[in-house]
Amino acid sequence: MSTQYDPQLSILLASLSEQTYVQYRNGPPPGNNGKIDVPTGYTQIASFVAPEVTPSSKLNQLSDIAWGDIRGSAELRARFAGIADVYFGFALTSPSQNIIALRGTQSDFEWALDSAIPQVPVPLVWYSHGKFQQARVHLGFLVFFILLAEQIFDAAKQFNTSSLCLVTGHSLGAALAVLASPVLKLVTGNQVIQMYNFAGPRVGNTAFADGYNELVPESFRVVNLADMIPMLPPTKIFGWEYAHVGEEWSFLNQSGNVAGNHALIGSNNYTDAVDRSVPTNAPRVYPVTGLGNNPTS
């Protein structure tokens, strides 16, 4: 198995990231069964859901949680009792590989949590590795991951643990892919994990990135250099430190607006770029210029 960026895998995973949005737009359960247009040779074995909460006082309910001690999603779901679930992604399996795909931001509540940049400790019951003892991650991203984690683990326990497990997502889904990938190895025993994400923000501090890179060295972030989301949160803000994981594969498409530069689907943007094998890991000097940046910064 190659440890290099695979353009064909990137094409497949970008298309499945698109399917996570289709799954959401088709409506919530039970009216929508969560089924997607599955690629030939794969079987869908799970759909993932999380509550869709309005951005009101619900965010205040998260201030008193001991994040490092959380042991399951029930501790959060109890605070969102009575809130309807929406789809957040799915799991596929085939004779040779398995896929976890996770969705990006769609609702006002999700945007509100995306902006919740304070760092909190990772739940050590899942991140049971020495390098994660000092790991701290983005509060908003961690909330979504906790709500989804046990569903993801249950699906992954159905995988052949010796087969390649691919984890993917766009935007918020990219952040969730970063949070999920090392835990899939630690909790479910899936040994061969690769992560491809698109338009992914920074997720945690240097301790988190170091632990992540040790456990999931085959990780590839596809980035439009004109997209501001991969530059967020800043590397240093209000005393918190953020670092990217994995290897950056970049392209440059200036669509003329923030949303267009970030969109998964759009002329010359993420799906078009990977379909035409445009992204490169060539060294960069500064993201917006297209002339170079440190791929691990």
Model description:
The chain has a single domain, classed as Alpha/Beta hydrolase fold, catalytic domain (Rossmann fold, 3-Layer(aba) Sandwich), CATH 3.40.50. It is 29% helix and 20% strand. It is built from 8 helices and 11 strands. The strands form 3 sheets. It has a 7-stranded mixed β-sheet with strand order 1-2-3-6-7-8-11, sandwiched between helices.
Structural class: alpha/beta
Corresponding CATH superfamily: Alpha/Beta hydrolase fold, catalytic domain
Give the CATH level 1 class. Answer: Alpha Beta
Order of helices and strands: HEHEEHEEHEHEHEEEEHH
How many E strands? 11
Helix content: 25-40%
> Mean pLDDT, nearest integer?
88
Question: Which fold name fills CATH's third level, the topology?
Answer: Rossmann fold
Which architecture name does CATH use? 3-Layer(aba) Sandwich
Tally of domains: 1
- Amino-to-carboxy terminus distance: 27 Å
Largest beta sheet: strand ordering? 1-2-3-6-7-8-11
Question: How would the global form be characterised?
Answer: globular
